[in-house]
Amino acid sequence: MKKILLTLSALLAMASYSHAEETIRIAVDVPYEPFEYKAPDGSLTGFEIELGNAVCAEMKVKCEWVIQAWDGIIPGLLAYKYDAILSSMSITPERAQKVAFTNAYYNTPTGWFAKKGSHFDPNDKVAVKGKKIGAQRGTTQDEFATDNLKDADVVRYGTADELVIDLYNGRLDAVILDYPVGETTVLGGDKGSEYELIGKPFQLGEGVAVALRPSDKELVEKFNKALDVVKNNGVYDEIRKKYFSYDIKI
After folding, report:
1. Greatest extent of the chain over all pairs of C-alpha atoms, in Å
2. Tens digit of each residue's pLDDT, the chain (250 residues)
3. Which residues, at least 6 apart from 223, have a Cβ–Cβ distance to it below 8 Å?
4. Are 214 and 99 contained in the same domain?
5. Which structural domain, as residue segments, surrounds residue 142?
6. Same-domain check for residues 92 and 133
7. Are residues 90 and 102 in the same domain?
8. Are 120 and 196 in a shared domain?
9. In the beta sheet, which residues pair with residue 113?
10. Do 176 and 220 share a domain, yes or no?
11. Cβ contact 100:220 at 8 Å
12. DSSP H stretches of helix in the chain
């Protein structure tokens, strides 16, 4: 009997979203300011948390946030630990082979950050040889640094906060981050006045979208319809202005 019950539980866990549509479990990797992080009282907040809650309200469903480290965030989706990922996941051809993306809902530039006076130049292939470059593991920034700075030592971290700690402590020569994240964590940190943006921010990829299981086509369309509504009725812009002084909507 126990074996039968376990099998039944497993089948229920594997059931598609349509069998439990009142609650949608959404994975998020924190901290990743200003997109998702914990407020002093421990509650989740940030641009994507507020946007996700607005989208869920539009879909008239209850959303439950699940904290998941970035490394395992797609495997967790495919293992039915949650139903969606709304955590600054950029659309890439490799990821699109594993998950179904909604339409993109924002795109922000990427930036290099280093200590003032370091004269770090990511475009100087000779000068960057052997330099320690920090990137968050599995991000488009990680892929870009790996592909374009083959003679550098790309050091990967689980979170942006860990990466900034090593930059501040001199264990990294430079970091590559989503620009708003670098603006908040590097330039806005307690040693931020000692650091600077290197060069101009630049775009990578097609933008950020919600990721879902390929079998959940109905849920993809529900997200797309709800995203369209909040992007056009003023709700998106109202939330965006709380976190960014510039437009990121696409």
Report:
1. 69
2. 433 333 444 444 444 555 445 899 999 999 888 999 999 999 999 999 999 999 999 999 999 999 999 889 999 999 999 999 999 998 989 999 999 999 999 998 899 999 999 999 999 988 899 999 999 998 889 999 999 999 999 999 988 889 999 999 999 999 999 998 899 999 999 999 999 999 999 988 889 999 999 999 999 999 999 999 999 999 999 999 999 888 899 8
3. 55, 59, 84, 102, 210, 212
4. yes
5. 109-203
6. no
7. yes
8. yes
9. 175, 197
10. no
11. yes
12. 2-14, 47-59, 73-78, 93-96, 140-148, 160-168, 179-182, 217-232, 235-243
Q: How many CB atoms lie within 10 A of CB 166?
A: 15
This prediction's pTM: 0.73
| Euclidean distance between the first and the last CA atom of the chain, given in angstroms as a whole number | 53
Where do we find the tokens 């965006």? 240
Tokens 């307690």 -> residue: 190
Spatial distance between the Cα atoms of 135 and 144, rounded to a whole number of angstroms: 10
Q: Work out whether strand 44-45 and strand 37-38 pair parallel, antiparallel, or are unpaired.
A: antiparallel
CATH number at residue 41: 3.40.190.10
**Angle, vertex CA 208, rays to CA 146 and CA 39, nearest 5:** 100
Q: How far is CA 21 from CA 56, 101, 217, 222, in A?
A: 11, 19, 13, 11
